[in-house]
Amino acid sequence: xxxxxxxxxxxxxxxxxxxxxxxxxxxxxxxxxxxxxxxxxxxxxxxxxxxxxxxxxxxxxxxxxxxxxxxxxxxxxxxxxxxxxxxxxxxxxxxxxxxxxxxxxxxxxxxxxxxxxxxxxxxx
Length: 124
Known about the structure:
Layout: H1 3-17, H2 21-24, E1 27-35, H3 45-54, E2 56-69, E3 72-83, E4 88-100, E5 103-111
Parallel strand pairs: 1-5
Antiparallel strand pairs: 2-3, 3-4, 4-5
């Protein structure tokens, strides 16, 4: 099974169970992870994925397309579910995995972070 397939399977497992172990096994110990909407760069895989999950009560990710070449994997996806504050969400994004050997050395996720904000109150 390719790293791309293992990553998609691990993310589905993470979304369903909240267990970070299968995802963490795909990364080098010194990997960096970043959601491009934030300035913070994570150097701890478990911390990144726990922080990711903390935003949601429920999340489901559907992958639409995957391209792998020259040590890089690009995944297009849609995530849907319920935020931790109870509001539904639905947004699209792209993840880039920099690969060294059979593991991820760097991870970046690009998405519209406004989709994770609570809806604005209706104007009077």
